[in-house]
Design goal:
single chain; alpha/beta; Oxidized Rhodanese, domain 1; five-stranded parallel β-sheet; two-stranded antiparallel sheet; 6 helices; 9 strands; Rhodanese domain-containing protein; catalytic activity; Rhodanese-like_dom; STR17/STR18/HARC1-like
Length: about 140
C-alpha cells in the first residue's frame, strides 16, 4: 500500500513495535475506531484518546464530520500522536487528514489494534463497562 500523497502530506506508518516504544516514551495514542470497538478493548496506553474517524450508520460507514475539531480540542498540533484503528486502514486516512490540517508529528500504526493484540502487548478493557455487564446464567447463553 503506497502513501497518500494527494494531500501533499506523506503519511508515516510505523509498526506496532515502534508504536509501543513511542507510547512508552510519552506519545499520545489516538484510537480512531468506533466507541463500541474501543469499549471491547484498546491499546494499553497512559495517554489515550478515542475519537472515531467513522460512524457506523444504517446506510454504512460515514466519516465523523467533527473529527478534526475533536482531535484539535484534545491535542496540540505539535503533540506526537500515534494513530491506530482496528487493522490500519481508517488510521491511514485519519493520519493523512491530520497532517493536511497542520498536525506536525503524526504517525499511523500499521496493522492496528489486531497487530497490537497479536504481538501480545498490553490491552485495557474499560472496567466501568464490565461492571454493568452482569454474567448471564448458563441457561441463557
Amino acid at each position: 500500500m503506497g502513501s497518500l500523497e494527494s494531500s501533499g502530506a506523506e503519511v508515516v506508518t510505523v509498526d506496532v513495535h515502534a508504536a509501543k516504544d513511542f507510547i512508552k516514551s510519552g506519545c499520545k495514542y489516538l484510537d480512531v475506531r468506533t466507541v463500541e470497538e474501543y469499549k471491547k478493548g484498546h491499546v494499553g496506553a497512559d495517554k489515550i484518546f478515542n475519537i472515531p474517524y467513522m460512524f457506523i450508520t444504517p446506510e454504512g460507514r460515514v466519516k465523523n464530520p467533527q473529527f478534526l475539531e475533536e482531535v484539535s480540542s484534545a491535542c496540540n498540533k505539535e503533540d506526537h500522536l500515534i494513530v491506530g484503528c482496528q487493522s490500519g486502514v481508517r488510521s491511514l486516512y485519519a493520519t493523512s487528514d491530520l497532517l493536511t490540517a497542520g498536525f506536525k508529528d503524526v504517525s499511523n500504526m500499521g496493522g492496528g489494534y489486531l497487530a497490537w493484540v497479536e504481538s501480545g502487548y498490553p490491552v485495557k478493557k474499560p472496567e466501568a463497562e464490565n461492571v454493568s455487564l452482569l454474567p448471564k446464567p448458563e441457561a441463557e447463553l
